[in-house]
TrEMBL record:
Domain of life: Eukaryota
Transmembrane spans: none
Organism: Urochloa decumbens
Signal peptide: none
InterPro entries: At1g61320/At1g61330-like, LRR_At1g61320_AtMIF1, LRR_dom_sf
Protein name: At1g61320/AtMIF1 LRR domain-containing protein
Length: 449
């Protein structure tokens, strides 16, 4: 039974009331409490929210809670004394899942009282999530022997404090850290022998990540280019790397990642950089099987060299699938359709290397840029193992909103470019595709507009 259904039933039956008071999962938010949001009565909403949460927790006092979630949005600056009191009631021996997300307007964050995590209470916690709080006593919490999932979002905690907390969480398997701006150095202790997944996003002051977790298999990072060490990285199989505003994002990925994660098998790169000129480098991704590159720049200058991405293909001898996504397609100033100079579709070869295991290639946001056509021709001519080539002139037919049967919208400029891309495919690509290759050309439909 959902929490709101249990609460309603408790209003009409004493038996249900007794059951409700023992209800083990409390998910408390303005939405779950059916408080209607209204910007014109913010103070009234906050008073109603405090009153209802207070009443629910008083009824549950001493009864034991297995899962507790408190999200205060949109009630800003709920006084810490209320929250302290609620946590004292909610965090009881046997609690397994805990979530606290505060919402404030005046810069001062709620200071999570680590005193509520006594040895008896904390020993059963398996999942712990804090958002928009201070956690400066993290290192003093003590052993979190059952903790397997830790998520910290917009939390004031230093790298030293976090290291102390992690050192006491030896069962941890998943760690998500986002928008924590006090952390300069993130160190993952070797004591975390079960840590499998590490995600680090948007920590603006972060300068270094050093992980010594021996079984880490998935690493995700979004931010500026920093110093990253994953130890021996023998088990890291998937890396997601996003540099939103770093001009050297692909350069960093091409030259550094083979050394950071030498046995990576799945690599997803995303950048908003407005230049692409991937270098030729000697280091290789020897076990890489799936490569996805997402280019998000809203405006692509004529110097955007898609053909230089061949460097990634040359560095990946085991590659089976290559996906290139142009997230925001628009009119190309370097369109091959307007180029009148000879057979400009012929690429100047970066290498003569063949891609012997590459079977599936998909390019979404496919455009008429000369370097895009050259990249496509290179793949066709150097990949004898190619089975399927998908050239999608939309923003990604494979990423449609399946539940509502709708495509990602295209701007007017993107629709014009899609038509140019179709002409370029007919003129320069189709005649070069072997009969053994399944060529799929996807054009905008009525749902893209």
């Amino acid at each position: 039974m959902q929490m709101q259904d249990a609460a309603l039933a408790a209003c009409v039956s004493r038996s249900f009331l007794r059951s409700w008071r023992c209800y083990p999962k409390l998910m408390l938010s303005v939405d779950s409490l059916h408080i209607k949001e209204d910007a014109s009565r913010k103070d009234e909403i906050k008073r109603e929210f405090i009153s209802r949460v207070d009443h629910i927790l008083q009824n549950h006092s001493g009864m034991g809670v297995k899962a507790f979630s408190l999200h205060t949005y949109p009630c800003s600056d709920v006084h810490p004394s209320y929250v302290d009191h609620w946590l004292q009631i909610a965090i009881t021996p046997g609690i397994e899942n805990f979530e606290l997300s505060m919402f404030g307007r005046h810069g001062t964050k709620y200071n999570f009282p680590c005193s509520v995590l006594s040895s008896e209470r904390r020993s059963s916690i398996q999942s712990f999530f804090l958002a928009v709080c201070s956690f400066h006593s993290a290192a003093q919490v003590g052993c979190m022997s059952s903790l397997t999932n830790l998520r910290l979002h917009s939390v004031n905690v230093t790298g030293e404090e976090l290291y102390g907390f992690l050192s006491n969480s030896c069962a941890l398997k998943q760690f998500y850290l986002s928008n924590c701006e006090d952390i300069i150095w993130l160190k993952i202790p070797c004591l975390l022998k079960q840590l499998d997944i590490l995600h680090v996003f948007g920590c603006l002051k972060l300068q270094m990540i050093e992980s010594n977790a021996p079984k880490l298999s998935t690493f995700s990072y979004a931010g500026d280019a920093i110093c990253i060490s994953l130890g021996d990285a023998l088990h890291v199989r998937r890396v997601d790397f996003r540099h939103d505003h770093s001009p050297g994002a692909l350069y960093y990925a091409r030259t550094k990642l083979p050394l950071i994660a030498p046995k990576v098998q799945t690599l997803v790169l995303s950048t908003r950089s407005e230049t692409v000129n991937t270098p030729i480098a000697s280091c290789k991704f020897l076990q890489l099987k799936y490569l996805e590159i997402v280019l998000c720049a809203p405006i692509f200058p004529s110097g955007y060299n898609f053909y230089s991405l061949v460097s990634f293909l040359d560095a990946s001898p085991a590659l089976e699938t290559f996906v290139l996504r142009i997230a925001l397609p628009t009119i190309r100033p370097d369109s091959i359709i307007e180029d009148s100079g000879g057979d400009s579709s012929r690429p100047q070869c970066l290498s003569e290397q063949c891609h012997d295991r590459l079977k599936n290639v998909m390019i979404t946001g496919f455009c008429s840029a000369k370097s895009m056509i050259q990249l496509t021709i290179h793949i066709i001519e150097k990949t004898k193992s190619l089975m399927c080539l998908t050239l999608d002139t939309t923003r990604g037919h494979d990423r449609r909103f399946a539940k509502i049967d709708k495509c990602l919208r295209l701007s007017k400029d993107a629709l014009v470019e899609a038509e140019k891309a179709r002409v370029a495919i007919q003129r320069y690509v189709e005649g070069r595709v072997p009969s053994t290759v399944n060529l799929r050309v996807i054009e905008p439909c009525s749902k893209c507009i």
